[in-house]
Design a protein that fits this description.
The protein is 50% helix and 9% strand. The protein has 16 helices and five strands.
Length: 377
């Protein structure tokens, strides 16, 4: 199946290569005088040279929303502008566009570089810088509700789905591959940008009912280690915040791969009565928000289902940046991937849970919760 997917991506690469060959490339006809080159061969501008449908397919955003993203990060990128990129004279707009197109994973990285008139190594530097700028804004775009009114609104939005009360987030975990820590982007070969060996990062996401990411925990999976989802949750800051009673009686929903606790409610493995079946039904429908959130994230940014180039720190910044971009798309109701296949909230194509340690007993808090809210009359 993986070989088939690689073959299909290769076919698409040929299609994309034909697409942008019709546009002038800034490095062609090098013997032509510079003054003539500037007049006859302007740099490719996706915002004007592609129609709206072509743009959405390749950049995973509408033109309007991509312009909004550019304005949000432009000033920071101009401040960070440094000499290696200055020699290439890559405009700020094109830096952001090329990074987002690379993260979309719609084509081979070399084709993305060629389409934007830069070298592959330059593209690696660009994406690292754009990710760094975006990830620095995490506290603004990725956060749990802080005020009482925010918490109440989030609970109401979850309860409106299937009448599951007190829920303030849905928790889901997966893994993402990245290049070895000692492989820097500038060391990559033009013909082979990705080394064969890769490591894994564990991602823990807490989302809201509108499929926005509210909490993100990224950890390196040590070599020869396969921790359970329960163990990874135990290490996360969100668990500590619940233990400190920051959310006062509110709960998270998790799947069957984590152990039920006072703050994290999972499905009842073997329901014994109608109340537990009603609870499981409400849990399943409500928890679908988390599955759809992850599917949307990974459909918009295909690089997450392949591998991320760079060190652990760089990969962590990239994932944070992609989560921020995802939240922007959700907030702006960007329709660019609405017609994509496999966006069903119950689809598990991208759902790669690494834990297999199921809970071993029923939780008293959950029992009381079911008795209070799902007892049959």
């Amino acid at each position: 199946m993986e070989d088939l997917q690689i073959f299909e991506r290769s076919l698409k690469d040929f299609e994309y290569l034909k697409d942008f060959q019709q546009f002038p490339h800034p490095k062609r006809n090098v013997k032509v005088r510079a003054t003539h080159l500037k007049k006859s061969h302007p740099r490719f501008n996706p915002l004007t040279d592609l129609n709206e449908n072509q743009f959405r397919i390749k950049y995973r955003y509408t033109k309007e929303n991509l312009r909004r993203i550019i304005e949000i990060v432009r000033d920071d990128l101009e401040i960070e502008y440094y000499e290696p990129l200055k020699r290439e004279q890559v405009p700020i707009d094109l830096q952001i566009l090329s990074a987002i197109r690379l993260w979309g994973g719609t084509e081979h990285p070399k084709l993305t570089a060629m389409a934007h008139g830069v070298r592959l190594r330059t593209l690696a530097k660009i994406t690292r810088r754009v990710a760094s700028v975006l990830s620095s804004k995490a506290s603004r775009y990725i956060r749990m509700p802080a005020t009482l009114s925010e918490k109440e609104r989030m609970m109401c939005s979850f309860q409106a789905i299937a009448n599951m009360p007190q829920v303030i987030g849905a928790l889901l975990q997966t893994t993402v591959r990245f290049q070895p820590e000692n492989t820097a982007p500038e060391d990559l070969d033009e013909e082979n940008p990705f080394p064969p060996k890769d490591d894994e990062l564990h991602l823990q996401i807490v989302c809201d009912a509108a499929h926005k990411i509210r909490d993100l925990d990224i950890r390196l999976i040590e070599e020869n280690s396969m921790p359970s989802d329960t163990e990874m949750f135990a290490l996360s800051k969100i668990k500590e915040r619940f233990e400190q009673n920051e959310f006062r009686g509110r709960i998270l929903l998790g799947d069957e791969m984590v152990r039920c606790s006072s703050s994290l409610f999972t499905p009842v493995r073997f329901p014994k009565n109608e109340s537990e079946e009603l609870y499981n039904h409400a849990h399943s429908i409500t928890y679908a928000s988390a599955r759809k959130c992850l599917n949307l994230l990974m459909s918009r940014f295909g690089i997450l289902s392949t591998e991320i180039a760079g060190s652990y720190g760089s990969a962590k910044q990239t994932i944070t940046a992609l989560s921020i971009l995802h939240n922007m798309a959700m907030e702006w109701a960007d329709p660019s991937i609405d017609t994509e296949q496999n966006i069903s909230p119950f689809n598990s194509t991208f759902f790669n849970s690494i834990g297999r340690a199921l809970k071993t007993g029923e939780d008293n808090n959950r029992k009381q919760f079911i008795k209070t809210h799902f007892a049959c009359q």
